[in-house]
Amino acid sequence: MRAQHFATELDRLTLIDADDHDRHEDGGFKRQAATPERLPLFPPLPPAAPYPLDALGPILGEAACAIARKVQSSPAIAAQSVLAAASLAAQAHADVRMPYGQRRPLSLYLVSSASSGDRKSTTDNEALWPVTRREDQLQEMHSRDHQDWSVTIAAWAAERKKVESDRKLGFEDRRAALLSLGPEPLQPIRPVLTSAEPTFEGLIKSWPSMPAAQGVFSAEGGQFTGGHGMAQENRLRTAAGFSVLWDGKPVTRVRALDGVSVLKGRRLAMHLMVQPEAAAAFMSDPVLRDQGLLSRILVAAPDSIAGTRLFRVATAADAEQIRRYHARMLALLEGWPSVVDRTQGLQPRELPMSEEAKAQWRDFYNWIEERSGSQGDLRAIRDFASKAAEHAARIAGVLTIVADERASAIPPEIMTAAVRLTTWYTDEALRLQQACRTDPALLRAQALLDWLSGRDEMDVKFSDVLRLGPAPTRTKKEADAAVRVLIEHNLVEEISERPRLVRVVSGGV
User: Taking the model in full, what pTM does it have?
Assistant: First the structure.
């Protein structure tokens, strides 16, 4: 989804090995018909706009800058990582109260598109260090608590068995003894705050024994987007489930084996770092778009900075900014409100907007709505635009809690920053949509063209495409479709049916 990745690179295509003349029957020559002009697969992709790092505030913004400098990754990728971690840390503390009275979680879903070598994992490791540290702390506490629980549950089970087997007790006495004994002691909460590729069913089934606020974080997000939960037969159910969690609604499950379960007060943040082709397939999926999951996702697809990352020594100033960020995130995680009743889950307090912030939010809402009409520039991403104002409110809530978890309202300066950030995400969604960078069919065709162009032989067997070609075109259906696209753009020609041979066409655009 970046210009470098999707460039057609016409200057290195294999030339047709033939003279541009054909011999007449009388021995003369005739000029061969001109080769049809080749058409690029993608419209030119404008460069990604710089991410407004300063809008993240002094803690998150400076940390994103420092991480990007230290790791030498794209600033937008670093920004996505710290914003997602902040959402995970903040979502247990409060819900934002919308100007129309309803509450919304501070949970954010983010997807970052970056190729191998763009240092996704290293960036995420820096941003998620506080989460890892908190899980280590919880693991230490869990080990002690589990030992105590093992003794307690053994004593409780023995006492219950004793009461149940006592033949001297009548109904009322036995009932009173069991009531006095109390319910079965619950196991300690498992020390898990994040998972990389959960299925929705697995997450819901395991969640009663985990903290009520969770995160789905993966530097290899293709494991999630291409995993069991997103298989064709599960995709709609998974998308609907994660949409319900984003909305902050209770999740109700009715299963033959598990019975009825209702999860209330759960919060989920998400950040998936995905390869460009996998990201395009995910973000263009019609099922996910129609269901509404994609409109709940903030996407960043920055240009790669590979080739500019000359070695530099990490500075003490960067280390201090990252340390401040780590300390703040860890404090928020350690300060999560206690869950008194596991069946009710979290009960975050309301975080309203100040009157001035509310007026700013209304202006932003109206501005986006006016651009979403049939003649507006946002009509192509109307699904995302319809939730842009809510994204702004959630981001504003996260930034407010990061600044002060005891804040009584979202201040106007933070709402201004949140509107700037949401405007960037809206422009990014529009940039990618207009340049077709979310069309998986074109991405597969581009991958096949790159592969064909790099072959030593001029004429390539279709069977070799299936055996040796790019992974997305190793089925007959996908390879056929990719070849048709390339033929329609005059980039490839089919020169033989038996055996089926294809050849890259030479010429300029």
Answer: 0.81
Residue 148 lies in a domain: no
Return the minimum-mean-pLDDT range out of 56-70, 80-94, 280-294.
Answer: 280-294
Asked if residue 221 and residue 111 are part of one domain, the reply reads yes
The model's pLDDT over 472-503, given as tens digits with 9 standing for 90+, comes to: 788 999 999 999 989 988 889 988 888 898 89
How many helices and strands, by DSSP H and E, does the chain display? Answer: 19, 15
Count of structural domains within the chain: 2
User: Domain of 327?
Assistant: 53-136+191-349
DSSP 236-301: HHHHHHHHHHHHT--EEEEETTTEEEEE-S-EEEEEEEE-HHHHHHHHT-HHHHHHTSGGGEEEE-
Quote the pLDDT of residue 375. 92
In-domain check, residue 278: yes
Residues contacting residue 492 through CB under 8 Å, at least 6 positions apart: 449, 452, 483, 486, 502, 503, 504, 505
**Residue with structure tokens 């295509």?**
13
Residue 427 has pLDDT above 50, yes or no: yes
Q: Is residue 503 within a helix (H) or strand (E), and if so which, with residue range?
A: strand 500-504
CA distance 451 to 464: 11
For residue 264, give every residue at least 6 positions away whose Cβ sits within 8 Å of its Cβ, in sequence order, or none. Answer: 250, 343, 344, 345
CA distances 400 to 268, 294, 352, Å, are 18, 25, 11
The mean pLDDT of the chain is: 87
